[in-house]
Amino acid sequence: MQVLVNSNHSISVTSDLEDRIKATVETELERFDDHLTRVEVHLNDENSNKSGPQDKRCQMEARVKGHDPISATHKAETLDMAINGAAEKLNHALGHALDKLNRH
User: Region annotation Disordered: residue ranges (predicted)?
Assistant: First the structure.
């Protein structure tokens, strides 16, 4: 599975941050590896340089082989919390969607 990381202008994606994101995605979505072609991660700081409650947003979109993409978004106070929350939500969404597809 390929993991692509994108961000808006207010978030600098360092190689360390990109490695942490890839590790989180790969660990959280490992059981779906055979079903996924790639996961796109979009990071956004909604308040730019100002801090605020839940101003960090992470959206993850999983590309499922032969099916529509599945997306999950999480907002949090820190980037790491947003990334972890989005990965957990995407894990649940993929589990639900693939179980549904396997039943049909």
Answer: 43-71
pLDDT in tens, 40-88: 999 999 876 666 677 899 999 999 998 899 999 999 999 999 999 999 9
Give 18's DSSP letter. H
Name the amino acid, one letter, at 102.
Answer: N
pTM confidence score: 0.90
CA atoms lying within 13 Å on the CB side of residue 4 = 9
Instruction: Dump the DSSP string for 36-85.
Output: EEEEEEEEEETTTTS--TT-EEEEEEEEETTS--EEEEEEESSHHHHHHH
Number of domains in the chain: 1
Which tokens sit at 30? 């490992």
**Phi-psi label, residue 48: left if phi above 0, alpha if psi -120 to 50, beta otherwise:** left
Query: Rounded to 5 degrees, what are φ and ψ at 95?
Result: -60, -45
**Buried/exposed code over 45-69 (b: 16+ C-beta within 10 A; e: otherwise):** beeeeeeeeebbbbbbbbbbeeeee
